[in-house]
Amino acid sequence: KAGVTQTPRYLIKTRGQQVTLSCSPISGHRSVSWYQQTPGQGLQFLFEYFSETQRNKGNFPGRFSGRQFSNSRSEMNVSTLELGDSALYLCASSYDKYNEQFFGPGTRLTVL
Amino acid sequence: SQQGEEDPQALSIQEGENATMNCSYKTSINNLQWYRQNSGRGLVHLILIRSNEREKHSGRLRVTLDTSKKSSSLLITASRAADTASYFCGLFPQGGSEKLVFGKGTKLTVNP
Q1: Strand segments (E) across B16-70
Q2: Least CA distance to B93: which residue of chain A?
Q3: Does B48 touch chain A (CB under 8 A)?
Q4: I need a surface site. Which of A34, B35, B55, B71 has the fewest CB within 10 A?
Q5: How far is B111 from chain A (nearest CA, A)?
């Protein structure tokens, strides 16, 4: 089976812009979760989608949003970028909640 | 806080030695999972241990779980330079929000 893929791998944006990140889960996995990783805050949960519905949400402002398509692919969007949004954004897929998560390689976002 | 806390924060050992990392938490859990992350890359799932299990093995890895002490440990035996990475425990709290919560990790360096 192909692993979790994320695109793009690297992204440089300026403050105020918006960005969309994409994640393709492992075939057959319906749960997709997103995490933000920074040196200061570590790994923080953003949200989880299951069968096109947001099932869980972390403590992030409304500038962070996401969606899941019928083929389980997921996108996350960050609007009005701030310097503090610079991070590694990781997507993980799993068969269902509580299962092992399979992570993609991440998208490294740099906000200038 | 629902997240686990890994201890130590950093560990440096010689090839061939054993490495032990600990994870403590404060809430009841559904399961606890250990992951490895090589520098700046996605996380790789190592072992999932359920709340009713006490020990699990996978190759050179051994994970124990003590729910009465709310702690888990990851033992890597006969470590290799390739084991150099950050190790994270993630836990699914029981009840409440069903999201995988990670600690800050243990940075393991195995010197050849």
Answers
A1: 19-24, 29-37, 43-50, 55-58, 61-66
A2: A98
A3: yes
A4: B55
A5: 24
Tell me which DSSP letter residue A83 carries: G
Quick check: B31 and A98 CB within 8 A? yes
User: CA A96 to CA A72: how far, in whole Å?
Assistant: 12
Residues B60 and B76 sit within 8 Å (Cβ to Cβ): yes
The amino acid occupying position A7 is T
Find the CB nearest A90 among B33, B43, B104: B43
CA A57 vs. chain centroid, Å, equals 12
Please state, in angstroms and rounded to a whole number, the distance separating the CA atoms of residues B14 and A42. Answer: 27
Tens of each residue's pLDDT in chain A, 112 residues: 689 999 999 999 999 999 999 999 999 999 999 999 999 899 999 999 999 999 989 999 999 999 999 999 999 999 999 999 999 999 999 998 788 999 999 999 999 9
CB contact under 8 A, B104 and A42: yes
Instruction: Label residue B2 left, alpha or beta by phi (over 0 means left) and psi (-120 to 50 means alpha).
Output: alpha
**If DSSP codes are grouped into helix, strand and coil, which group holds residue B82?**
helix
Category of B5 on φ-ψ map: left (φ > 0), alpha (ψ -120 to 50) or beta: beta
Place of tokens 């310097």: A83
Distance CA B18, CA A32 (A): 35
* Contact yes or no for B90/B102 (Cβ under 8 A): yes
Per the CB < 8 A criterion, the answer to whether B71 and B91 are in contact is no
